[in-house]
Amino acid sequence: MARNALFLTVRDVDTETAALPDETAIGRVAIRVDDLDRVLPFYREAVGCRVERDGSIARLAADDGRELLVFEERPEAPPRPRSAAGLYHVAIRLPDRGSLADALARLRDAGVRLDGASDHLVSEALYLHDPAGNGLELYRDRPRTDWPRTADGLVKMDTLPLDVADLSTAGDGRAGEALPAGTDVGHVHLEASDLAATESFYVDGLGFRRSTQEFPQARFLAAGGYHHHVAANGWNRRTEPLGDHQGLRWFELSLPDESAWEAPTERLERLGADVDGDDGPPTAVDPDGIGVRLVVRDDA
Q1: Of 79, 199, 254, 259, which cross-links 297 as Cys (Cβ 3.0–4.6 Å)?
Q2: Nearest to 21 by CA among 187, 179, 190, 229
């Protein structure tokens, strides 16, 4: 899909009326793979998802039924090229530190090796890849009252080594159970081919705000003072938009009610972004061809 031309800048937007509602959250994330049988055991046994499969579609949920991921099987789909934009990682947020410790134990019991483990000041995070090569983060937030902030209100974050041994002591022994109630998708982290165009889409169009300035060649964007709902980086120098290959297809942006769809939809259309809402909730396409579906929060 051709990249959209987005020229509106932050200075052209009324920041008070353009911001997304504080209740904004990330909903489901959809990923294409070539073989569900290769991927689903990992998510069921190591991650702890409840899995429901209907032919070429699999829906992965926490123990309370909240859907987190939707996998589409396309055996003929080629791997994502090294030049293509797409997913850096999808981040599953656990409700507390004990749940993250149990997730770590579950991964260890399944023989999964972590790619990394970080203390971001606002959160504790475990990083890994699924068998199809999709990046995955499992994390828990610290209380918002403990998040360090700059004088102008931005969140201060860092990437420090996580004390995994200390984390391991926080579990309650439920490692064999599913992801607990309250688990959701906390954020998505994208690899963009053009950070300026991506920022214009998500900030000037959708209404996110920059949440931190701590990481070079990356944008961390949020609503309601969160540390980030969407991040995008240029670290691996992706140069092409999404193609008809494996990897991220779309994700949901959950808003408190349908009236919250109107302003971002109008702004995106003024930017020249593709927006389709004729047969249901609006779906916009970001500059790299990633779909963003506006939906109403399940708990609204």
Answers
A1: 254
A2: 229
Higher per-residue confidence, 66 vs 214: 66
Residue with tokens 């090569």: 133
Domain boundaries 10-296, corresponding CATH code: 3.10.180.10
Place of tokens 């970001």: 286
Condensed to tens digits (0 to 9), the pLDDT of residues 81-128 reads 999 999 999 999 999 999 999 999 999 999 999 999 999 999 999 999
Is this structure's pTM higher than 0.90?
A: yes
Burial grade of 108 (CB within 10 A; 0-12, 13-18, 19 or more): middle
DSSP classification of residue 281: S
| Amino acid sitting at position 58 | A
Spans of all domains in the chain: 10-296
* Order of all β-strands in the sheet with 184-191: 160-161, 116-119, 123-129, 135-141, 86-94, 184-191, 230-233, 218-222, 209-212
Q: Which residue in the block uniquely carries the two structure tokens 């937007």? A: 13
CA pseudo-torsion sign 177, 179, 53, 46: negative
- Sorted by sequence, the CB contacts under 8 Å of residue 231 that are 6+ apart come out as 88, 187, 188, 189, 190, 218, 219, 220, 221
pLDDT tens digit sequence for 208-233? 999 998 888 999 999 999 999 999 99
**E strands, the chain, where?**
25-33, 50-54, 57-61, 67-73, 86-94, 116-119, 123-129, 135-141, 160-161, 184-191, 209-212, 218-222, 230-233, 247-255, 274-276, 283-285, 291-296
CA angle 274, 276, 280 (to 5 degrees): 160
Please count the other Cβ atoms lying within 10 Å of the Cβ belonging to residue 22.
10
